[in-house]
Write a structure and sequence with these properties.
6-stranded mixed beta sheet; 11 helices; disordered C terminus; binds adenosine-5'-triphosphate; binds magnesium ion; ATPase component of various ABC-type transport systems with duplicated ATPase domain; ABC_transporter-like_CS; ABC_transporter-like_ATP-bd; P-loop_NTPase; nucleotide-binding
Length: 282
């Protein structure tokens, strides 16, 4: 049988601070388990309030943090076995990250096309600048941009939505099968969010990429998720098919979360999502 794309098995992360006398223990991720199938690309969402352990969990999936206990496997392989530089590079070509603020992900003094070229050289071993440019252009087309549009531009010359799409294009250069996106639209202007969110759908449907979408926003989660888990204080308190969970949450925390978020986000959700793609989306 083909192994799953990802298995998160009883994963814990405990941070300890202080010394012998004033030791503080923070159980940031507490016994979390879920799997993503290999043959069924999906948008899997992790929802939870600030401090619930979402980024810590993402860090472990990206293999930049190691679990205190439990195991994470990518295509059946335990992430702890990834040690050599070569193995790490190989893993990174399959599993890519998108972060909250695209302006933090790019050096303001470096032209954005350089990032795509270096990803092409690093992951796909494009040896000539023509080959790297071709690869960059291909990735940019997947996000609705082109190399001609971004060539020579600096981060501040682009909108947050555009720059986040460039970040996604950079992640796509290596043809990953999983993208971990940690609050990818929370710093982006509301009118541009839907373009980025729709892109995740497209990546799933047209390119077979699975997305782990981390958010505290139920409206976007409802709109694009196939499945989701809701985290509170490091634990998964509810999970399953996204529409079922969000339409009829069972856990008291999920019910409270739904009420709180929907009342705040109603106005935004109504005009952004029921009105289709905003005409100004760039
Ligand atoms: N490197 C660290 N050292 C010690 N504690 C940490 C570290 N990273 C995270 N924590 C703690 O772990 C808990 C979970 O943090 P985490 O960043 O994963 O939450 P989050 O759900 O991503 O929150 P947010 O929505 O604000 O991004 C918090 O209590 C945080 O203070
Ligand atoms: Mg976080």
């Amino acid at each position: 049988m083909r192994p799953n794309l990802l298995d998160v098995e009883h994963v814990n992360k405990i941070f300890t601070r202080g010394g012998f006398v004033s030791r503080r223990v923070n159980h940031a991720v507490n016994d979390v388990s879920f799997s993503l199938a290999a043959d069924k690309p999906e948008v899997f969402t992790i929802i939870g309030e600030s401090g619930s352990g979402k980024t810590t969990l993402a860090g472990m999936i990206l293999n930049s943090l190691s679990p205190t206990s439990g195991r994470i496997r990518f295509r059946g392989k335990d992430l702890r076995e990834i040690r050599s530089r070569r193995a790490r590079l190989e893993f990174m070509s399959h599993v890519q990250a998108i972060f909250q603020n695209p302006f933090d992900a790019f050096n303001p003094l470096k032209r954005v096309d350089r990032y795509l070229f270096s990803a092409a050289q690093r992951f796909v071993e494009c040896r000539t600048s023509e080959a790297a440019a071709e690869r960059a252009d291909e990735a940019l087309h997947k996000v609705g941009l082109s190399l001609a549009e971004v060539r020579g531009r600096y981060p501040h010359e682009m909108s947050g939505g555009q720059l986040q799409r460039v970040a996604i294009a950079r992640a796509l250069v290596s043809n990953p099968s999983l993208i971990v996106a940690d609050e990818p639209v929370s710093m982006i202007d509301a009118s541009l969010r839907v373009t980025v969110i729709n892109l995740f759908r497209k990546l799933r449907d047209e390119f077979g990429v699975s997305i782990i979408y981390i958010t505290h926003d139920l409206a976007t989660a409802y709109y694009i998720s196939d499945r989701l888990i809701i985290m509170q204080k490091g634990r998964v308190v509810e999970g399953g098919d996204a529409r079922t969970v969000l339409a009829a949450p069972q856990h008291p925390y999920s019910i409270k979360l739904r009420q709180a978020v929907l009342s705040v986000d109603d106005a935004w959700r109504d005009d952004t999502f029921t009105g289709g793609m905003p005409a100004t989306a760039t």
